[in-house]
Structures are given as C-alpha cells and as structure tokens.
C-alpha cells in the first residue's frame, strides 16, 4: 500500500486525545452500570431479572442472557472467518481490517463466555458442576461440546493473533513504548526472522482449520444443534438452523468490523490506511450476507405457517406479528438494499451512513436471536403451562449486562490499541508475498 509509512500504524500507540479519554470513560461507565446491577443479582439471585420458570409466574427461563450469548458467539465466529478468508483467498483489499476482525473475535468470545457465567446465577457452579463433569461428559453432552468448541476457537484465534503479532513487534520495536518492554519480551521469546516463512505456513493452516470448523462445529454446527435437540420448543428444530445461525454470524461480524474500522479511521486519520474501497467491499459483503439471512428467515416463516404443526404455526404467527421482529428484519433489509444500491451507484456510498446501518443490523440480529430463544419457550409443544399467565420483557438487570459487554469490547480495543498495532504491517508492505503450503 503506497503512501502509508510505519509511523501511521503506531499512531494510536503514540498519541492520546480527548476523544480517546471520552471513549474510555464511556466504556468504563457502561461496565460500572452493569457491575452495579450484577452485584444486586449476586445478592438476591436471578429473581431480579424477568427470567422465571414456566410454572412460577409465567415468562421464560431463558431470555436476553442466552440470546446475547448466541449473538456474541456469532460475531466472534464471523469475525475470525472473515480474517481467515482474507489470508486463504488472498483478499489483500481487506488486509487492513484483518487484525481488527481477529481482535473482535477475542473480545466477543470473552463476552459470550461472560453471559454464561452471568446466567448460571452462582458463578461457583461452573467450578463445582461444569468443569469437573467436562472430561466424562464431553463424549455425549451437547453442552460440553459447546464449551469445548468455543474454547478451541478461542485458543486457535489467540494463537493465530500471537503468531502474526511477533512479526510486527520485531520490526516496529523502536516505535513502541519502552514501558511495555517486559510484555514485548515475553511475546518475542525465541523469535528470529528465519521463523517468518514457517509462521506464514502455520497461520495459513490455522486459517484453513478455522474455515473448516465454522460450518461443521461452531456457529453452523454445535450451537444450533443444542437448540434442535429440544424439538418440543416450537421453531428450534430443523436443519435450516445451522445455515441460519451462520448467516447471522457473518452479517453481524461484518457490521461490527465496519463500525470498528470506521472508528479507528476517524480517530487517527487513517483515510489512506483504510481507504473507501475497504468499506465499499465490506458493504457489498454485508449486502450479500444480509440477503442470505433474509432468505433463510423466509424459509422458516413459510414452513412455519403452511401446513405446520399447530404449536409451530402459532409460534410463527406470533413471531411475524411481533413489532420487534418486523423492525429487526426491516433493519437488515434496509442495509441490504443500501449495499446493493451503492454497488450500482458508487456515488451514493457514504461511510457514515454505512456505519449507522451496521448499528441497525447488529440491533436487528440481536433482536432476532432473543426472539428465537423466547418464542420457542413461550410456545412449546406441550400444554402443561398453557394456563399460566405471564410474558417476558428484558429487565434492567439483563439490559445492563448487554451494555456492560459492549463496554468491555470498547475498553478492550482502547487498551489493545495502546499496546500493539491493530493493523498488520503486511497491510502496507508492497513486497510481502503470501506463502502457501
């Protein structure tokens, strides 16, 4: 990439601004609000949420906590899939945002795991129940497979990121803060330039493994499988769930990358480093993934209202008449139409508009996943609790957890951007050649 020097890459590390401090305050503030509510939950239990057992007051035992878990896992999986695709397919145009996607994966997986911790009620149950049971239950328990594949993805992503960071730190060491030398020394243990070609091959194979695992084991596999194993919950079973979950993951991830890349470009004047062409390309991918998402939603609606079992038909009719669901679909459809329109008329493209639409897409996919969880539980195939009144609306405690995890992601990027380059050095090296196995 011509016209961009190494000093541009380390600009976030070398500078502080009022906007940075304001963003830091927002992130910490969101986390603080969540912690205040979470302490109340630890003290009084899950009764402070609107989650409840069917027979003890209506509503649902799973709600925003599980819906947000699926949403964050989807963002994480979609992010690393896109980063891996950049390397495997030689999509050099998107090299400037590849590491941002990897970092988003780490942050989103952390938030997804946090929601499981929150939803357990008593965090010590993970130590006394889940962890001891894992070695003997992983062979047949879908829940243990969930823990296994998410952990495996976290390890793969962290390894993937660490291997590429070593190359950059070695060549940018004179521009990095000496205060962090102990951290850099740990990251660079055993490094020599002779390892670069080997590392390139290792990273290629890790990327290949990530691409293979995604549809088979991760957001297209184990997680929808967990829900499909409960066919008594209307709308949860069916082979379409795997592709549907994966389409939502990719749609959400592209939206997240657009927002983060635009934020860094605006904050640090990275117009040359992350040019308009990157955002236009991401916009087209967002339009394509949104189209697949909407098509799979249509498949679920059609099979749910035409000659479907009574409870599934009822659940589907309730879903398509729910204003929140219609808003969610509308937000994704609006982003898709804008992306396709700007493909035909590039002069219509505006990064700020695309960022706003990406925020809408993230809100829409989150709403769809929460409704997926809630509607399935409220309209189950058994009539045991038909006479129990009650509905579900996310409580302030649950909403604070969502805001808190968003704050964690904001804080994560703010801190990481002061430690390592968030754009790979390869993105500005014209003489860099991909090494294939």
UniProtKB/TrEMBL annotation:
The keyword Lipid metabolism does not apply. One of its GO terms (cellular component) is plasma membrane. It is a multi-pass membrane protein. It comes from Halorubrum saccharovorum. It is found in: Cell membrane. This is Dehydrogenase. It comes from the Archaea. Keywords: Cell membrane, Membrane, Transmembrane, Transmembrane helix. Belongs to the NrfD family.
